[in-house]
Structures are given as C-alpha cells and as structure tokens.
Amino acid sequence: MICKGSGGFCFTPFPIAYCAVDVRNAISFLSCYDKGIWRVSRILKRRYQPYLIMLSKIIEFFFGKPEIIQDPFFGQMVEAGDYYECKRHFKPTNQEVELGVTKRSDGDTAPQKAFFHWLEDNYDIILDAIKPPLLKQINGWLPDYQYQDFKEEFVLEYFFIPDDEQLEGRWEVTFFAKNELQHWCNIEMKGLEVQQILIDG
Q1: Predicted structure pTM score
Q2: Among positive and negative, which fits the CA dihedral 56, 59, 60, 64?
C-alpha cells in the first residue's frame, strides 16, 4: 500500500497500519467523509469484498435490506448510505462502468444524468487533466515508470457522481492499472482539477 501525506510516502503491508505520516490522509483513504456519511473507499471495497459481503449480511440482519430502485437512465440502483450504487454503459470506453450516484431528497436524478453526460462528452479532457499528476505520484514510488498507452493500460472502473450540474462538487474516478503496476488508482476531482490521488494494490 502507498499513502502520500505531508511527510512523504509510507509503505505498509496492512491497510490499517499506515497512519503515521498523516492521519487525515490515512482516514480519507479508508473512507471519504461527505455530508456527514462515511463512504467506504472503492479500492478497499473491491479488495476486501468477501469480508464486506459478510459485514453487509450482518447489517441487513439488524437494520434490514438496502433500498433498491429502478431508474430509467441508471437502471437498478442499490442504496449505500447517502448514495446509490449502479452500473451503466460508458460510451468513450464502450464498456460498463460502476457508479456511485448521490441521493437527492426529491428522488430526481436529472443533475446526475447531466453530470454523467458531461463525463462522456469530456472524457479525453478529463484524462489529460489526470495523467500528469497521477504519473508524478507514481514516479514518487517508481522513478523510472512510464506508461505507453494510458487508455489501454489503465482500465476505467468507477465514477462517483455528485448532485451537481455546475461542476462545483467533488467527484471520483477509479482506474485499475493492468500493466506491471497492478494497482487501483482512485482520483478525487473538483471540476477538472485533481484534489487527491490514492493508490493501492
């Protein structure tokens, strides 16, 4: 695991043990605090999926099953705290992508649909904004690393979509580097500006 804080990088074999560099960044890796709700990191959720499935069954036993709704655009949406989880075809990659879609009290998903279309229409611009800071962070760990074809080597897996048509809210994108890195890269964005990069294998 790699975590970057104010003191630099630290390397640990266990995801709970790396807090010495920067407690705030360590906590943000484990979960993202948004509107008073903790959201489990995409990376950790995928990596420890069997354990989280067991945990979800325990939660369901005590608190009931999560709400499931059908949306004409996003399809089946499963409640996950203050957002829904779902999947949708993403035109730029011609592949299905996992989504986290922020809840609205009125149930309207129009702003999230508009944001998804913005992601599709501006995907190449988004990648151009992400690639330099992502490579810089990887080079802090592997100084000689260079990718050859970003779209081929970094597989898009996930977007977190805010309740925001004005691009003022924070959103997330996760890639899996299927090249020699074999790491997940989670990038937190605000508009087209990279706010934070979290990398884990």
Answers
A1: 0.73
A2: negative
> 112: left (phi > 0), else alpha (psi -120 to 50), else beta?
alpha
- The gap from C-alpha 182 to its chain's centroid, in whole angstroms, comes to 16
Q: Which residues pair with 198 in a beta bridge?
A: 186
Closest CA to 170 of 78, 77, 102, 98: 102
User: Are residues 197 and 136 in contact, defined by beta-carbon separation less than 8 angstroms?
Assistant: no
Contact by Cβ (8 Å): 47, 200: yes
CB-based burial, 159-185: b 16+ in 10 Å, e otherwise:
bbbbbbeeeebbbbbbbbbeeebebbb
Q: Around Cβ 118, how many Cβ atoms within 10 Å?
A: 16
- Beta strands at 75-79 and 68-71: parallel, antiparallel or unpaired: antiparallel
pLDDT digits (tens, 9 = 90+) for 106-143: 888 999 999 999 999 999 999 999 999 999 999 998 99
How many other C-beta atoms can be found within 10 angstroms of the C-beta atom of residue 137?
19
Phi, psi torsion values for 133, nearest 5 degrees:
-70, -30
Domain boundaries, the chain: 2-200
The DSSP annotation for 120-166 comes to HHTHHHHHHHHHHHHHHHHHTT-TT---S-HHHHEEEEEEEE-S-SS
